[in-house]
Amino acid sequence: MDVRAAVERVMPGVRADLERLIRIPGIAFDGFDHSAVERSAAAVAELLSGCGLDVGVVRSGGQPAVIAHRPAPPGAPTVLLYAHHDVQPAGDPALWDGDPFAPVERDGRLYGRGAADDKAGVMAHVAALRALGDDLAVGVVVLIEGEEEYGSQSLDRILTEHADRLRADVIVVADSDNWEIGRPALTTSLRGMVSCFAEVRTLDSAVHSGMFGGPVPDALLVLARLLGSLHDDDGEVAVEGLAGREATTVEYPEDRFRREAGVLHGVRLTGRGRLADRLWTKPAIAVLGIDAPATGAAPNALVSSATAKISVRLAPGDDPSSAYAAVRAHLEKHVPWGARLTVTLESGGAPCVIDATGPVYDAARAALSDAWDGTAPVEVGIGGSIPCVALLQARFPDAAILVTGIEDPFCAAHGPNESLHLADFTRTCLAEALLLQYLGRR
Prior knowledge:
Layout: H1 3-22, H2 35-49, E1 54-58, E2 65-70, E3 78-84, E4 104-106, E5 109-111, H3 119-132, E6 139-145, H4 155-161, H5 163-166, E7 170-177, E8 185-190, E9 192-201, E10 207-208, H6 209-212, H7 219-228, H8 254-261, H9 275-280, E11 284-291, E12 301-302, E13 305-314, H10 320-334, E14 340-349, E15 352-353, H11 359-371, E16 378-382, H12 387-395, E17 400-407, E18 419-421, H13 422-441
Parallel strand pairs: 3-6, 3-7, 7-17, 8-16
Antiparallel strand pairs: 1-2, 2-6, 4-5, 5-18, 8-15, 8-17, 9-13, 9-14, 10-12, 11-13
């Protein structure tokens, strides 16, 4: 079978269906219309049913996931294909060049929330299945999660309740990065994550800033000093008890990183050590948002309470429970002037390391290299977190897990103007189809 020609034939339909998925704002966060997540799951189920799979929509106390199945021919392996159909909130629409949920192509990229993360992952699986059709020589289980962006809170229960249906020899997680445009990657380590809220309170209610300012600490000032304690003067994480190591072998040039991240001229990078270590194998802490009066509507009053959302990325080898305890202990130790502090855990996910040796990984490298016309993949870590990977490792320890790239350094996942590089997306679809063909030959 000419897999390359088959993928080329199905790509126009794949592109159209990707755009249809992008138009569904399936956001699993509290406060959003979850009927859109239901519609997103139904659309994914329809797509997989059209590939000849037995499909069901499942849930276990959370948002709907889709499980689809096609049994393996005698003696052939079964491959689990994972992606997620939910997306991040779009944020401020003024920061987008258009409607976040109205996909549009510009300069070879498809723009829209979820275009890369991770509706392209869903459609890479669909593309491979459509291309191979009746020539598919492996068994396939497809798991499309519905709340990955919200922390995969019900995924462990789904994996437990449907373990027999999901059991596989090989697992492909299509939710990571490629090394650069035109060069594929296999992800072999991922940082974990702890997300928490820190609220400080100093007053029963807001009071006049002139009449009481001076002796009374306002909550925003308290919060600013508390958040400043999380890093030292070099920007290195200052929380005791978080794991970290220097273990990378990949060189990440600073000029390339600054360009890809969009760092402004004159802004110094934070932390110490090799750049790849700071991104992949050391912890990181960021403040994602603050609840406080907006500047345009702020009265001349001392703020009584303020809350920050804190994101902690955990190095491989760390544990979410102990990391949360370390962050909470640090905040409690450093809260200034006796202010009342409440720390609340939102979610957590474990980091992981993948041993990418053996025949399955050899087949994956061959498929990626062939799809990228002889360009060998780079083995990388990523600073982001994919909670399902550690859960899948724990649930199916004998399966070979492949974490493959959909995104690229310029896709702006989670940010405004998220986009997908269409040429590399086609290569990703081809690589997955080739991988399934190579595994079937084995």
